Amino acid sequence: MLLINPAPDNARRAFLRSSAVLGSALLAAPALLTGPAAQAASPVAAPPTFARRTLGQGKAAMEVTALGFGCMGMSYHRGPVPDRQTMVRLLRKVAESGVTLFDTAEVYGPFINEELVGEALAPFKGKLHITTKFGFDIRDGKDRGLNSRPENIRKVAEASLKRLRVDSIDLFYQHRPDPKVPMEDVAGTVRDLIKAGKVKRFGLSEASADDIRKAHAVQPVTALQSEYSLMWREPETKVFPTLKELGIGFVPYSPVGRGYLTGMLNAQTNLYPGNDNRLGLPRFTPEALRANYPLVQALLDFGQARGLTPAQLSLAWLLARPEQVVSIPGTTKEAHFHENMAALAANIAPGAWKQLEASLDAITIVGGRYPPEQQDHSGD
Ligand SMILES: NC(=O)c1ccc[n+]([C@@H]2O[C@H](COP(=O)([O-])OP(=O)(O)OC[C@H]3O[C@@H](n4cnc5c(N)ncnc54)[C@H](OP(=O)(O)O)[C@@H]3O)[C@@H](O)[C@H]2O)c1
What range does the record give for the signal peptide (predicted)? Predict the structure, then answer.
């Protein structure tokens, strides 16, 4: 939960108008209304049909729903930690709705997010893809920097398997490249874990095109997970050509800009100092939040005419990318989850997207996404 002061009046009015038409968007996405969740069925009931995409190719391929779910904020870095059983119920509702891709990491908590996901999704064992990440040196419950040494990767795999209550990790990402460990050694270690049946697929996060190539040569990579949204489009030039050439999928994290692109945060927002890393991000200073508001306003204006909220637009834009793209929005609120999933029903002409992109390109974003010292090793 964030301690949020109301958005400016014009933004809130536009949001409420958009919400009023959300009902029709949901009707256009029957899976969201007719699935087992709507019938309060058992958590193991068959999920409804949902648009699917394939990340990676060949033996590395993984077919998942076109939108996944990011679990981090349910226990880490997105405000006061919500009641655990409420999060267990929400995760089960997400799975019942038909979503098959769930993302977590050892460092989220650390450990408690994997434990939450493991408990919540245990009734769906074998029916979902749960992805997690290694690559940090966690000692005495604290993140002490990077560690992708082979012995640590093996240790994390064993511990994550237990916490997630699975027999094999569906996709094991390196959370950040470790300058002390050659990418070939990392990929070789994951290859051995795959051979041993402990891991099914290999992924990278925030890796460069060069690192992706080195890793993929040793063990085919299923997906790269990096930040990508209407607010941060650098991957398009830096890594998309390589991903396309090698047939690797792309999983954008922070797809609604860590909340900013929903229009629900502004310069008056009080983020919770106990558990919210956004307080340390240059883009979340009051000055940056104020300076970047034209971006939110452009989304409100564009969405108003189309009956979509800024969050839905941000996700629909990612769904409209030509690459193998499956984003993982995170939320602690069931209402936000339904709002986000309704992005699947958005139908916006390519020309209109170009118009929106052009209007956003004209806005200079204030504040880096990470402080310089964290640029290479932040876990979220
Ligand atoms: N590989 C990496 O290094 C890395 C880094 C960061 C994140 N991730 C992954 O990506 C996932 C998502 O990232 P993220 O949490 O940073 O960013 P995000 O999904 O862009 O934003 C999440 C924030 O937006 C809010 N939100 C979501 N939908 C909303 C809606 N419809 N209306 C209003 N607010 C809404 C959530 O608050 P409420 O709870 O109030 O809805 C939450 O504070 C994480 O869970 C994690 O799995 C990976």
Answer: 1-40
Q: What does the pLDDT look like over 26-82, one tens digit per residue? A: 333 333 322 333 333 333 444 456 899 999 999 999 999 999 999 999 999 999 999
Rounded Cα gap, residues 171 and 62, in angstroms: 9
**CB 2 within 8 Å of CB 73:** no
- 377: confidence class by pLDDT, cuts 50, 70, 90: low
Nearest to 231 by CA among 76, 69, 356: 356
pLDDT, tens only, 82-138? 999 999 999 999 999 999 999 999 999 999 999 999 999 999 999 999 999 999 999
- 51-260+311-351 fold: TIM Barrel (3.20.20)
The region that residue 363 occupies, defined by phi over 0 for left and psi between -120 and 50 for alpha, beta otherwise, is: beta
> Which mutation among 64, 262, 314 tests ligand 1's pocket best, with the greatest number of atoms within 8 A of CB?
262
Distance, CA of 47 to CA of 65 (rounded, Å): 11
d(CA 205, ligand 1 centre) in Å? 16
Measured from the Cα of 379, ligand 1's closest atom is 3
Taking the CB of residue 145, how many other CB atoms lie within 10 A of it?
Answer: 12
228 a catalytic residue = no
Pairing relation of β-strands 136-139 and 142-146? antiparallel
Residues in the chain: 380
What is the rounded distance in angstroms from the CA atom of residue 159 to the CA atom of residue 193?
A: 13
- Tell me the average pLDDT across 137-164: 96
Token pair, residue 274, equals 């106990």
Residue whose structure tokens are 């919500």: 82
Integer angstrom CA distances of residue 362 from 236, 266, 356, 357: 18, 20, 10, 9
The domain segmentation of the chain, as residue ranges, is 51-260+311-351
Instruction: Give the residue carrying structure tokens 């981090």.
Output: 72
Closest CA to ligand 1's atom 2: 380
Q: What does pTM read for this prediction?
A: 0.89
Catalytic residue of the set 108, 228, 260, 293: 108
